[in-house]
Amino acid sequence: MTNTSVKTLQEHRQYLHEIVKLKLCFLHQWLQKHPEESFSEALRNRIDVYRKTDCNKAALNPKEINWEAEDWQCLEKKAEEIYSRCQNDPEKFESLAFAVFKDSLDARCERDYHDRSARNGYQCGCLRHNLKLNENSTTPTLGFHIANFLSPESFFDYPGYIRDSFNRLLDAAEKQFQAKYISTSTWLNSLPKWLELFPHEWQENLGPENTDIKWHYGFWGQFITAKQTFNHKFGEILRNSGKLPYYPRASFCSVKSMREQIRKL
């Protein structure tokens, strides 16, 4: 059953601590497997720590990042020096590197807790469509993104809300963009409960798993519960296996077949 109590500030702090610890654990694993990649490159592009620290003076996802800013450089260099000493001790690296970032995480915590900028641009309930058609598609295709705005509950518990969100998306696809198809790439495309929402055409068009892990929610959203707290179960899977529970996959289907499918919801 979904926990229907709203996340507290203390729970949000715990979430920030746990997700950053997990990402530092992953960072060590990744660098051990990819020695050709620099520490700073992996820290900046494979995981999201900067945006959660007080180095980020903007909203949750700033348009631009100055990686050379003095406050960030100080943290990054300390963490890299720890990695150079702890390449054979992942637990020590995680512990010491987290201590480097902790004060900066705590300094931004309350601002992060009240940040609602992630909701910006969502035109269709839990769905947000791109502002132009996919450039690499041979047929007019509109890409979209997903978020759970029913927290602390899950949108999966409300099929009517999902149906309304997709109806609005499909209306926009046809009327605003004259699109014939919709598409997205997300870890949810590896989740059976999500795939059940789509016509068979969607599953036929599923692409391969994308294991080129990047910092964004398309990969890391699975470690956040409906309540927006840390998903300990999935965190343990990554720690123990070195692999994400689910990897993003891309897919697409026609607007027509999706309309027929959502009538069944």
Commentary on this structure:
With 265 residues, this protein is α+β, with helices and mostly antiparallel strands. It folds into two domains: 9-117, no CATH class; 121-210 and 247-262. The chain has ten helices and four strands. The protein has a four-stranded mixed β-sheet. β2, α5 (159-175) and β3 form a beta-alpha-beta unit. The two termini are 21 Å apart. The mean pLDDT is 96.
Features:
265 residues; alpha+beta; single chain
Q: Quaternary arrangement of the chains shown?
A: single chain
Order of neighbouring strands in the sheet with most strands: 1-2-3-4
Low-confidence runs of at least 5 consecutive residues: none
Give a short account of the largest sheet. Answer: 4 strands, mixed
The H/E string reads HHHHEEHEHHHHEH
What value does the average pLDDT take? Answer: 96
Give a count of the beta strands, DSSP E runs of length 2 or more. 4
- Cα(first) to Cα(last) distance is 21 Å
Summarize the structure.
The chain has 265 residues and is an alpha+beta fold.
Topology:
Elements: H1 9-33, H2 39-45, H3 70-85, H4 90-114, E1 127-129, E2 141-146, H5 159-175, E3 181-186, H6 192-195, H7 200-204, H8 217-220, H9 232-241, E4 249-254, H10 255-262
Parallel strand pairs: 2-3
Antiparallel strand pairs: 1-2, 3-4
